[in-house]
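Team,

Forwarding the record for the chain on the shared tracking sheet. I've put the sequence and predicted structure together so nobody has to dig through attachments.
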Amino acid sequence: MTVFHKLSFFILMFIFCHDQIRIAQAQEPTPFYLAYNLCSRSNYSANSTYQTNLNLLLSSLSKTFTNRNTVPLYGYRNITVGENPDTVYGSLHCREDIAPDICSACVQRAAEEVGKDSMCPNSRRAIMYYNGCVLRYSNKYYFSIMQEKPAVPLNNQNNVTDPASYLTLVTGLLDGLVIEAVNNTSSSPSLFSTGTANYTRENTVYGMVQCTPDLTPSSCATCVRSAIELIPKYFYGKRGARVLYPSCTFRYEIYPFYGQSVYATTQALPPAPVVLPPPTLQSLPNTTTSNGSNSNSLRLAVGISVPLGIAVLLSSIAVWWFYFHKKKKINAQDGKKDFRTVESLHFKFDIISTATDNFSEANKLGEGGFGSVYKGTLSDGQEIAVKRLSEDSGQGDQEFKNEVLLLAKLEHKNLVRLLGFCLHGQEKLLIYELMNASLDQFIFDTLKQTYLDWEMRYKIIGGIARGLLYLHEDSQLKIIHRDLKTSNILLAPDMVPKIADFGMARLFLIDQTQANTNRIVGTYGYMAPEYAFQGQFSVKSDVFSFGVLVLEILSGKKNTIFYESVTGGAQDLLTYAWRHWQNGSALELLDASFKDNCSRSEVIRCIHIALLCVQHSIANRPTMVSVIVMLNSSVTLPVPTPPAYLVSDQAVEDQWSLNEASFTGLSPR
């Protein structure tokens, strides 16, 4: 083998190991990943005594977990602040397998985010389920009380080939962990346990159970076993799943998701690369029966292999360094070329500053994770909207370049038009045509809902569909939006809908059908399950989001809030719509503002199409081409299957709602 072939072999091995690390990293999100959050629909008033007590409680809990030396036993602490009727009860609980500094950082994130507008603003009760910790507060006493509601079932989208035997294996593993957790020999068991079971020769099942340490062992066992009983109903045949109860949780996966190998330091380390074990003594060539000779042979083998291994490692690092820096240089040059192609769209900063009256508060239209949006008027009288990206925004240089380059090449009646951009020091500005308002400002506002009659809503649905079709099929590019939601649909003065915010969009090759990412972005409640849990996105991901949008437009209800179902339970909008569809009462879904003045056939067809779009199976969802055909003809529609994100049919205590939350733990916006 020549030196060239050896070097090529080592490079390929290095790339293989690097890819294995990347794949492993994608399997398990960070401890700061927000898995779910629940908010009560009972609110407190701004600047009230309750808010003051809540702020004090969150500050006190957060300070308790400021460093590894102050993290309490079992990572759990509860606090009570204030007097009736403004008493606030709160608790923080970390997963016991994560390091104290990770626990501390997770708690800080939870305390900071719970009051944000995108989470649980002004809610008297909330539960924030992060991957590494749980923050909970309430105006009702809940310490040491076992609570199974509201239940949140989440699952891995991959299936096993032998569901019956897998179910037996998983339930047996989890039941054993329950026994281990509650029968700890200490006087105060931690009510936490992890373990494994052999599934196949190649695969191991990893399990975890945990209760809040304020429960008795008996209550803990009852709580977890109640959650385990949901497996046959919700997770039959799924490789992994978990149920989040207020008082307990379990989880199982076919990959390691707990322990020091995942969260050993303040940053989640990737699992070690796959390394073949050294040969055993029995497998070494046995050239003599002498113990001395065998010992010499072993020393000789080690003496050769260690320097060779070091040389291979150094060579791999050198090749990687050369490849990485050369690619980085090429990418930088390509980036400059990209911006030169849209140089004609560049605005001077002083022009935009003058147009917005130096970004005055009076001209501010809104604010989000990316920064603020301002209204402005150019010297020729043209009105503009200016998106001013904040320096700490998750939407950085790459997303900014995405939006400029994509929108500069796109032109469609149902896409917001980019007029230009500005780069000035740390300032990054995007200049758009000025719109009337965003869609969510109309459909979720009881005062403005009446402006949208059925004819208007039907046109908006059709306009969004045509805009998506253009992105997916009809433009010179093929673009997946990845963050389609009501606040990203802007309405022109004539109420024509325009899709906006392409910072998270991804460009596809014309013949490409799907892709994967380690960076999950977007808003929970609008995400397709395969994207939210596996990072797999395609045109069908946008189709799922479109289906959610249609149901929200028809109902005037948010997908991220629980509603009373026809069977008496409380469910999210997708399940709520599905239950009405099954019971032949689909028209009950409609917003009362136009319910009595609409075309029954058009409404039923739109609900039918929306349910087809939000089906769990990617293959069963239609393309936007099919959606356009179904909207504009009387073609027979397929029978829909149940939507994704089905939740428990049991009543949810006090009408908890899942608030609209981006995956800020993975990719803050």
